[in-house]
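#struct-queue
[09:14] JT: dropping the first one here, sequence first, then the structure tokens:
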Amino acid sequence: MLKEFKDFIMTGNVIDLAVAVILAGAVGMVVSGFVSDIMMPIIGHFAGGVDFADMKVVLSEAVVAADGTVEKPENAVMYGKWVNAIINLIIVGFVLFMIVKSYAKVRKKKEEAPAPDPGPSEKDILMEIRDELRKK
């Protein structure tokens, strides 16, 4: 059973999948950083200086003691983080769309390359031999 597992793990598909998962995690971190650190400040600027991550609906205010310690934390719906996640999803979807579209274009060009002429078929050669033999 251990040998079967080793054979399974060492197949190309499993290794390719592992590489893809690791690469997807790294790309996800890059895209998240791009959205939160570059795109959201720009979008917030054009939306009137709003920081979406701080947008919330407070359901109950925090209760603070006289000495400044929080007795009961604020209860709020943080919909701004959800807006950030949606924008992140749209950007990731667009990037993936562009990658797939580019891949399809490259693949189509490869497929459109004309195949080399295979030469005469076996039937054509036999017909030529027959015709030559009839001439003699």
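[09:21] JT: and here's the second one, same format:
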Amino acid sequence: MKILLDSVILIDHFNGITAATAYLRQTRGDAVISVVTRAQVMTGFDEAAREETMLLDSYQLLEISKPIAALAAHLRREHRWKLPDAFQAALARHHDLCLATRNTRDFPPETHGFATVPYTI
């Protein structure tokens, strides 16, 4: 199963968390990112962040379509998630992906079978 990387996984990598870096290496051919992840991660970069942007560019990018937006709205109402989390869940469900995240408050794997927590810190 392909993996949708949540923003926190990439942010951990850029913050020097070795478990995140190891996970990114392990899932290299199977991982994708969303426009949500790209925007959230790039918020922490300055204009000269060329190396970081190159890493993001190496992943397939999933965009938000009308059906995904509708599913995100439904999930947001149902789970009371923030909109970025609802988009991530909708993208994962729509594309039959596993969402790799550390956000166990919103995505406890025992409740949301599409979520996985690849490491803890």
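[09:30] RK: nice, looked through the second one.
[09:31] RK: The first helix runs from residue 7 to 14.
[09:31] JT: good to know. The chain has a mean pLDDT of 94.
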